[in-house]
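Catalogue entry: protein

Sequence with per-residue tokens
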Amino acid sequence: MGQQKSSELAKVTNSGAILLGNIFEVDSFAGKPVRVVSHFHSDHTILLSKSGKFASHILATPATIEALPLMGFSLPEDKLLPLEYGRSIKFGEDSLVLVKSSHVIGSAQVLVETVDGSRVGYTGDFKFPGTKIMSDLDVLIIDATYGEETMVRPFKNEVDILFSDLVSELLSKGKPVIVKGYHGKLQEAMHIMRRFGVEAPFILPEKVYELTKLAEKHGLKVGNYFREGSEEAVEAIKGGWFVYLNHANSRKKTPFVASEVVLTGWFFSSPLKKIYENGSGERWVVALSDHADFEDTLYYVEEARPKKILIDAFRSSREIAEAFAKSVLRRLGKEAVVMPDSHGIEEED
């Protein structure tokens, strides 16, 4: 590490901003010249409109830049700066690279190198496979949404096919299926179902449809999906063989009777659980997550071997972050600092 102290190089503020080096604020507002958006989920776009007024640039991957208007943000176009993974860009005396992560379409880790050669990185939300581990860091700020030792999914390598088989089985019973989850996860769920043989058409509300078009543009394979209300969607609904995908928080009433599958990361005892079955259909919970579990989060720290570790407690509970810090000390013999002092907010998963 150079002459700057680690406390000056990286921190998590009480407003949820990740500060890296001297120039960059990530995922919330802190009055820095450049705002970086790791991905489009709401707990990572905090006070983005305020950053749009004060920052000189708003930087993210091309997919995230294109997703922001779909999520309701109206930002100055001359400030939007799309940056591809792996390309270095310099502001002042600090340089920044967006590093590939697996979470939702366009999600990225943030790596900053300061003028004195110090390297600081922020994982944002991530899972394996598909996330590149940043190494040779002076400071690592890591997400630990599932940082308690009990938060392990031993079935994580099988859940994709089990989820797809469940949807196929429910469709075979003569009723359509509703799948509910968060934006980004819904697109991944569609890709998974196609990979494992679900051929039924997908019917999508407006925002889900637009995000799916964006996901396909940036490489996710879905196919055979239709905007709700379109002629193709109306015909598919008449046929009764389709999957309707909607946001987890939607209270919209559908004009058809269907079984329901809810996607959640907060489930560790089994990959699938039937909640009930009645004349209208069945309701299931599936443990499909876009976050690393405890084992994967610990693995990241072990492989990265940073000189200093900060745990983001703003986007998960402080209790879970502190539990992860204790595990890092006990398992890896490394001190980890929990930041900030606030209790944080609930993560979309």
